[in-house]
Design brief:
The complex is a heterodimer of chains A (397) and B (397).
Chain A (H helix, E strand, L loop, with lengths): L5 E7 L11 H12 L9 E5 L13 H13 L3 E6 L1 H5 L8 H4 L3 E3 L8 E8 L2 E7 H5 L2 E7 L1 E3 L3 E3 L1 H6 L5 H8 L16 H10 L5 E4 L4 E4 L9 H6 L9 H20 L6 E7 L21 E5 L2 H15 L20 H6 L6 H9 L7 E5 L3 H4 L17
Parallel strand pairs in A: 1-14, 2-3, 2-7, 3-4, 7-12
Antiparallel strand pairs in A: 1-13, 5-6, 8-9, 10-11, 12-13
Helix pairs in contact in A: 1-2, 10-13, 11-13
Chain B lengths: L5 E7 L11 H12 L9 E5 L13 H13 L3 E6 L1 H5 L8 H4 L3 E3 L8 E8 L2 E7 H5 L2 E7 L1 E3 L3 E3 L1 H6 L5 H10 L14 H10 L5 E4 L4 E4 L9 H5 L10 H20 L6 E7 L21 E5 L2 H13 L22 H6 L6 H9 L7 E5 L3 H4 L17
Parallel strand pairs in B: 1-14, 2-3, 2-7, 3-4, 7-12
Antiparallel strand pairs in B: 1-13, 5-6, 8-9, 10-11, 12-13
């Protein structure tokens, strides 16, 4: 990364003028322009990595913006394609993504059966290798196009998570990356009787503790745990259960490591990050359900620095604050207003900044950023607006 | 209409359970089920009238839901098609609407050049006839699929406006319906000198007052007037200008009349109304730009009674407060107590209920409704949720 602050371009959903040129779509175009696709070379294969959604969810980045980004890539001479896991690519039409609507093909990230993979050495705790999607690894240019929202495992999903989870095979995504939290011992089998273990299972209202009596083995699903600590209360006097920040940090850290491996396959000039802070839901699009937004729409961010864009996204969300009455009743909302909105819904040990800090430590970018707002409402409201805004006669004729 | 309150089915965006069967898409399906498409006959041509958007706007009803409605119509034996004005149909692909994504053809409401229309006599003030889109008039079944949002002419756009404006050919829409506001005198030419007229033009911060000196004619574009009353202040000592309720009401009344004529072309058992109260912007999709959401998402409403569904939509929105931070800075928010959120945006004389009241007077339905919530968070919160919510490893395999 170059010295000095990293630039993060920001377009707000708020606009100061009735002119089309001051509205959100114009801002998305302007940010694409500022990102400067001129470092894309002719015939470069450009992977537009996004989450195409799952099941009954619909709040992914609208195809309306995807096709504009695709168009800009084509104008720069690149050969764009949209990529994601095979299930999402196969069902992308449900959310309106097709070759015709996007303007380019949709190609699964690791072949139709997740078998086209590139092994990368990780050597982090119990994870030796991870299998990266071969299509992503083959691409010349990365456009990491993210829908920013909350996430139950790590507080939030943004640009890091989009490539860290979305860029790897299903087995590694679900078993290795999501299995990492348990690699720091959190339960002492010698201190625990089967009876006590069953009591612990019952103590968890979210059903996250399971116990295999035959093997005398107790497991905690950290991903869904919001740290109510009811299990600890039940365990008072026995003290066989012990977990904390260090367990939860692991997922955030391996996420940064995996994202870094993806980034390494691209030249530094050929990495672009665009994050949409709209439809900011409690949990990830991988839940496959529509959810009420819990933070007002903010806008779009663009940067060439993944760490900077993530830090800026989280800062803007913290500034906007939580829509408390939109938090689903199944979330256990924390009252502490000094916490980040995503911590208030997922627990204080799911600090969304952890992955950003760790990414910086790995040299992926800088948290020291300069936010450059384009077409700001304050500026555009001083400019002359159009007389009419609506279609005053059929423009198709 | 049958006696007793009309049923309005409601699905909230708030979820009480992490399961897919409790999520928003499931509620949309459930509302459709309650609407009961059994009254659609085999081979009926089913017009799904929606606004497919314009230019740089993207906040129309997501194709994700459109294709589910289309599917339900097909299962009932109907032949669905989507219809809207020719410009919107031609550019629908930009927002992801195509035959492939919707599951049915997209057909312009009055042919490709707005030339296929039927006249009907209106005789309302200065409007003698209006031209209904021929494709709409030909259809056997109406599904009035609406994105509910604010509107600068009439406070809000809902199910009535979707067919009342969207169901007619261009010139009827833009000249006759939008021109009706001028038909009641509001300016006294004899009392006003050219100099005073120019002062009035200058007094309007919105640029809504125009004066033609040659013809000595002053006009107020009521559609964009926010009733700040600065012109009345400037006119204090002369008294040639009136900004009164009647002029504003005309548009809403004619809207109800226009919608009623369309309804009359359908059997009472073959009219269905679906209102999406999500992405609630201050102004209409016809502005052709993304706009900030000034109210939290509410959910989806379905009814067979157009008056009831509109009344319920406004009531649910009226329960909420405007999110002031999301209101564009060029909007002068009205703060008088007792105003509906849409009146706070578009002015007290643009009471959104006027069109609903008038529609009831015309016998189009009943404001007396029974709101029946489907899959309410309260109920689903008590049911057992799934132990896992995310994609089980590679569900495409």
């Amino acid at each position: 990364m170059s010295a000095g602050k990293s630039e993060v371009y920001f377009g707000s959903v708020q606009h100061g003028n009735r002119g089309k040129w001051a509205s959100f779509a114009a801002k998305v175009d302007e940010i694409v322009k500022k990102l400067d696709f001129s470092t894309i070379e002719k015939k470069d294969k450009v992977a537009v990595k996004m989450h195409l959604g799952f099941g009954d969810g619909y709040q992914t980045v609208p195809v309306f913006f995807v096709r504009r980004i695709v168009k800009a890539v084509k104008e720069a001479g690149g050969y764009p394609f949209v990529t994601d896991n095979p299930t999402s690519v196969y069902n992308a039409v449900d959310r309106g993504y097709t070759q015709e609507t996007c303007g380019c093909p949709l190609i699964p990230v690791a072949g139709v059966k997740d078998k086209y993979l590139r092994k990368v050495d990780v050597n982090y705790r119990n994870v030796d290798k991870l299998h990266m999607g071969g299509v992503l690894a083959d691409a010349d240019v990365l456009i990491d196009l993210s829908h920013v929202k909350g996430h139950d495992s790590c507080g939030f999903g943004g640009a890091v998570k989009n490539i860290a989870l979305g860029g790897f095979s299903k087995d590694h995504r679900w078993n290795k990356i999501h299995g990492i939290e348990g690699t720091i011992p959190f339960w002492d089998p010698d201190k625990c009787t089967p009876e006590h273990a069953k009591k612990l299972v019952k103590s968890c209202k979210d059903g996250l503790i399971s116990y295999d009596e035959e093997k005398h083995k107790l497991t905690v699903s950290f991903g869904m745990c919001n740290q109510c600590m009811d299990c600890f209360k039940t365990d008072e006097g026995v003290g066989c259960l012990k977990f904390g920040e260090e367990n939860f940090r692991l997922f955030s850290e391996i996420m940064a490591i995996a994202a870094n491996e993806v980034l390494k396959t691209f030249d530094e000039k050929k990495r672009f990050f665009i994050s949409f802070l709209t439809q900011i839901t409690t949990t990830c699009d991988c839940w496959g359900i529509g959810q009420a937004p819990i933070v007002n729409d903010i806008g779009v961010l663009g940067s060439r620095d993944i760490v900077a864009i993530e830090a800026a996204s989280l800062d803007l969300i913290a500034k906007e604050g939580l829509l408390v009455d939109k938090v689903p009743p199944m979330s256990r909302l924390l009252d502490d207003k000094t916490l980040h909105p995503f911590q208030r819904v997922h627990g204080r040990m799911k600090d969304p900044y952890w992955t950003v800090e760790y990414s910086e430590k790995l040299g992926m970018g800088s948290r020291d950023y300069k936010l450059i707002e384009i077409l700001s409402p304050e500026k555009t409201m001083k400019m002359k607006g159009p007389k009419t805004v609506v279609e005053d006669e059929p423009t198709f004729m | 209409m049958s006696s007793g309150p009309s049923n309005v089915y409601f699905g909230s965006v708030i979820l009480g359970n992490t399961a897919r069967w409790a999520a928003f898409a499931a509620k949309v399906d459930e509302v459709i089920k309650k609407l009961d498409f059994k009254t659609i006959d085999k081979k009926d041509k089913v017009a799904i009238k929606m606004h497919l958007g314009f230019n740089d706007g993207y906040q129309t009803v997501p194709v994700f839901f459109v294709r589910r409605i289309v599917k339900a119509v097909k299962e009932a034996g109907g032949y669905p098609f989507i219809t809207d004005n020719p410009t919107a149909v031609y550019n629908a692909v930009e927002r992801g609407y195509t035959q492939e994504t919707c599951g049915c053809p997209l057909i312009p409401v009055a042919g490709v050049k707005d030339g296929y229309t039927y006249d009907f006599d209106v005789n309302f003030h200065n409007v003698d006839t209006l031209k209904i889109g021929g494709v709409m008039a030909d259809a056997d079944v109406l599904i009035d699929l609406t994105h509910v949002k604010g509107h600068n002419s009439c406070g809000f756009g809902g199910a009535i406006k979707n067919i009342a404006l969207g169901g007619y050919h261009g010139p009827s829409r833009w000249q006759k319906i939008h021109g009706v506001e001028q038909s009641l005198p509001y300016w006294d030419a004899d009392k006003c000198t050219p100099e005073h007229a120019k002062k009035l033009v200058e007094s309007c911060g919105e640029g809504v007052i125009k004066y033609d000196e040659e013809k000595h004619k002053l006009t107020v574009a009521f559609g964009m007037c926010i009733q700040c009353m600065d012109c009345i202040e400037a006119d204090k000592d002369v008294g040639c200008l009136q900004i009164k309720q009647e002029n504003f009401s005309l548009f809403q009344e004619l809207m109800a009349i226009g919608a009623n004529e369309i309804l009359k072309t359908f059997d009472e058992n073959k009219r269905f109304f679906l209102n999406f109260l999500i992405n609630i912007t201050p102004f209409c999709d016809c502005w052709g730009m993304g706009l900030p959401n000034i109210l939290n998402d509410v959910g989806v409403l379905g009814s067979r009674d157009i008056v009831a569904v509109e009344q319920a939509s406004l009531d649910l929105i009226g329960k909420q407060e405007v999110i002031e931070s999301m209101v564009p800075p060029f909007v002068k928010l009205h703060n008088e107590p007792g105003l509906h959120p849409f009146q706070r945006i578009n002015g007290p004389l643009k009471d959104p209920y006027i069109t609903v009241d008038y529609a009831e007077k015309l016998g189009m339905g009943s404001k007396d409704y029974k709101l029946i919530e489907v899959l309410s968070p309260k109920k689903t919160a008590k049911k057992k949720g799934p132990s896992k919510v995310t994609e089980p490893p590679g569900s495409f395999f």
